[in-house]
Write a structure and sequence with these properties.
This protein has a single domain, classed as Orthogonal Bundle (Tetracycline Repressor, domain 2), CATH 1.10.357.10. It contains seven helices and no strands. It is mainly alpha-helical and 154 residues long. The chain starts with a helix and ends with a helix. Helix 5 packs across helix 6 and helix 6 runs antiparallel to helix 7.
Length: 154
């Protein structure tokens, strides 16, 4: 595609990067809505862990790199930082709410903290997907997230 056509429809480089960020966040938000709607009552923790640690990666290595690049660009682009931060907050909050239904005696803050831990494990595991690691690493990430969630069983 010619640069002139791209600039006509999208604008300058900054507008193009912002449009990409909005598209990526919208896509990830769609995945988030799937989590909210599909988690079953009796298998909520298993469904949650399957969402974060699927047997087959949902995203390609290149789309993960796009997300990582947008996060890296956030300091230069306040609007992107805001979009990404807002998405992470939604992800952690929704995950915390899901955990609270599984562990009702845990406090909202405890569930939120564990949710953030699970999200961090997920993001770090996803960042290694391009290495095509042995499946034992996925199992380890999933097991660690489960242990963290089960710490809420007070």
């Amino acid at each position: 595609m010619k640069r002139s056509i791209l600039r006509h429809y999208v604008g300058n480089r900054d507008e193009l990067i912002l449009a990409l960020a909005k598209r990526v966040v919208a896509k990830y938000r769609d995945h988030l809505q799937v989590l909210a709607k599909t988690a079953s009552e009796d298998r909520r923790l298993d469904d949650l862990l399957s969402f974060f640690f699927p047997d087959m990666p949902v995203e390609t290595a290149s789309s993960l790199l796009v997300m990582e690049s947008l996060i890296a660009a956030a300091p230069e682009y306040p609007e992107i930082r805001h979009l990404m931060s807002e998405y992470i907050d939604e992800l952690v909050t929704l995950t915390g709410k899901q955990l609270r239904t599984v562990y009702p005696r845990a406090t909202r803050q405890q569930c939120w903290s564990v949710a953030y831990g699970i999200v961090c494990i997920c993001f770090n595991h996803e960042s290694l997907v391009p290495l095509n690691l042995d499946p034992k690493y996925l199992k380890a990430a999933r097991d660690t997230a489960r242990r963290l969630a089960e710490s809420l069983n007070v």
